[in-house]
Amino acid sequence: MTIKSALTIAGTDPSGGAGIQADLKAFQEREVYGMSVITSVVAQNTLGVQQVEHLSIPFIEQQFDAVWNDIKPDAVKTGMIATIEMMELIAGKLENTDVPYVIDPVMVAKSGHSLMEEKSREVIRNMLIPLSTVVTPNVPEAELLVGFTIKTLEDAEKAAKVIVKELGAKAAVVKGGHLEGEAKDVLYDGNDYTYLTSERFPTHHTHGTGCTFSAVITAELAKGKTIKQAVEAGKKFITDAIKYSLKLGNGNGPTNHWGHRLQGLPNQEGK
Ligand SMILES: Nc1ncnc2c1ncn2[C@@H]1O[C@H](COP(=O)(O)OP(=O)(O)O)[C@@H](O)[C@H]1O
Ligand SMILES: Cc1ncc(COP(=O)(O)O)c(N)n1
To answer: Which residue's CA is the nearest one to ligand 1's atom 22?
Structure first.
């Protein structure tokens, strides 16, 4: 069996639901060998973010080189990259590789805490997105990337197209977690739209949904799946992870990375 590997470059969540920790759990569930480069150490839990400390640029670079020069990953994702300097470093490292690259453009945590400097938005747009295979913004992130309001499915389609045609991503998925009604995401791959729809579960235990979704997409690309197959696998996985999400902690609990093994069983509300 050939082992495929994936690398996440992101911030941490010591409570295990988001960031690097969520990504590594997702890679493991998809049977891909997981590796990580930490950009910022975050004191956070299900209640919110308490404190953030950024690692130095030379130290982030050392971590990256340690992985890349030894076990070159089959796919890479970035999550929380807070500063312009971090983005420039990562862009420089990824610009001449052909490794599939997924960007989860993490800007603000669900709890409302900013995880990216505002002035970095321009840099993610100009330097990182043109290098990417798939970008996975939620609605507020997509609005900041494209500069218009997203209220309807048509707006989401338009935003996905702008991210591909104008910002230079190979594909974009605008996630519908923040819209009303069914949880409907829109993938645009430069030619076609694909809609990924699930029922909306009435739960607030959704800490780390975006991290887990993009990590599964990364794992599937590492295995050589197409963008469409990878995004469909990500949607299936996150739907079960939310359906069986965990009432852990005192705030918004984490998603359940074993959700896909629990199909047919009652969720935590007994439904
Ligand atoms: N309550 C929910 N029920 C079912 N799916 C959801 C729910 N909330 C979010 N999702 C799905 O989870 C994935 C992550 O979306 P979203 O929560 O918008 O991302 P983020 O964590 O970046 O804000 C998407 O596929 C979205 O459709
Ligand atoms: C290190 C890190 N990366 C990403 C998120 C976003 O996750 P969420 O939007 O679910 O809070 C987070 N809270 N922490």
So the answer is: 210
| Residue 224 a catalytic site member | no
**pLDDT tens-digit map of 33-87:** 999 999 999 999 999 999 999 999 999 999 999 999 999 999 999 999 999 999 9
Q: Which of 136, 206, 218, 255 is flagged as catalytic? A: 206
Q: Is the CB of 13 under 6 A from ligand 2?
A: yes
**Ligand 1 close to Cβ of residue 206 (< 6 A):** yes
Q: What integer pLDDT is reported at residue 118 of this predicted model? A: 84
Q: Is the CB of 77 under 6 A from ligand 2?
A: no
Which residues in the chain show pLDDT less than 50?
none
pLDDT number for residue 110: 82
78 catalytic residue (yes or no): no
- pTM here? 0.97
Cβ–Cβ under 8 Å, residues 212 and 237: yes
Q: How far away, in angstroms, is 207 Cα from ligand 1 center?
A: 10
What are the residue boundaries of the structural domains of the chain, listed by start?
5-251
> Ligand 1 mean position to 260 CA, how many Å?
16
**DSSP letter at 118?**
G
CA of 3 relative to ligand 1 center, distance in Å: 29
Q: CA-CA distance, 63 to 57, in Å (whole number)?
A: 10
Query: In sequence order, which residues have a C-beta less than 8 Å from that of residue 187 and are 6 or more positions away?
Result: 160, 171, 172, 173, 193, 194, 195, 196, 227, 228, 231
Read off the pLDDT of residues 191-201 as tens digits, 9 standing for 90 and up.
999 999 999 99
CATH number (3.30.200.20, 3.40.1190.20, 3.30.390.50, 3.30.420.10) of 5-251 reads: 3.40.1190.20
Task: Return d(Cα 182, Cα 250) in angstroms, integer.
Answer: 27
ipTM value of the model?
0.98
Helix (H) or strand (E) holding 214: helix 209-222
